Amino acid sequence: MSLFKNFSLDKIKKGLEKTKEKFVNKISETLTGKAKIDENILENLEEILISADIGVETTEIIIEKLRKELKNESDRSIENILKILKSELTETLMDGKLKISDNRPYVILIVGVNGVGKTTSIGKISNNFKNLGKKVLIVAADTFRAAANEQLEIWAKRAGVEIFQGNQNSDPSSVVFDALNKSIKENFDVVLIDTAGRLHNKVNLMNELSKIYRIIRRVLNRNADDILIIIDANNGQNAIVQVQEFSKIVNLTGIIVTKLDGTAKGGIIFNLCQKFKIPVKFIGVGEGIDDLQEFDKIEFVNALFENNNV
Ligand SMILES: Nc1nc2c(ncn2[C@@H]2O[C@H](COP(=O)(O)OP(=O)(O)OP(=O)(O)O)[C@@H](O)[C@H]2O)c(=O)[nH]1
Ligand SMILES: [Mg+2]
Question: Which of 126, 143, 202, 260 is at 20 to 30 A from 61, Cα to Cα?
Fold first, then answer.
């Protein structure tokens, strides 16, 4: 069940077209016309999965499981191998919804490297909450660039939600402190905190994030309810290092993978889930306000494999 009203399988399918081309269509080509599965075909599949950014380790796990399943199966037809492969791929994934009924205000901290889609995703999520009738506060904790504030302001207007801005160059954690106190006093349902893009190897910026994290704990007496890292699908295998490094500073509860519409590297989602066991909560499939979609692993794999029954 999706939490938000904008869920659209068509948007997801469209957003995944490039990944599908690179990955599922190639699998179909490999399997078409083959009567039975053999070791050669398994090797071809392995190559396709690796080149589709699923990662060497994750691919090996999937192929090994497939090999084992096929040993026990009397049905070694192509239809069956596709069925097993789909189910192995689905099992690799982890999905998860926001649980906004648990706490009030429900506080979501958004982190990630530069330009991955943090601000845009906040705009889209806040619009969804607004459509559910929630009272939403967006917090501009990116205090480095005036342009960052302006961009967030535009999104707040578009979504019709309130924005809290500190002074430019003020300490981001003090902005977060004031915003959280306001949200408690004024009974906001949801607080979304936008942070500046930071490279994971810049120590000062990572320390600053750590301070924001501690301030949230201090005000709420708990961690932020969701700490989501935004990953640009175009980054491919670099995404792994990003999740690794941010995990050292904050307790990530989920991943948002953006810009799937522009890349064939969507396979990275399988690798991320397999490696970190952190759920993907949303995927970005375009720049429009409704283009952030809740992630559902079954729908995702179905969308990838649609019309590919060989
Ligand atoms: N095609 C596409 N573009 C996206 C998606 N998500 C974000 N973008 C675009 O990516 C660009 C960067 O997005 P921002 O939201 O500004 O990224 P950010 O992480 O806040 O960037 P910094 O604050 O500079 O670190 C914008 O042009 C967005 O429109 C997506 O899912 N698909
Ligand atoms: Mg931003």
Answer: 260
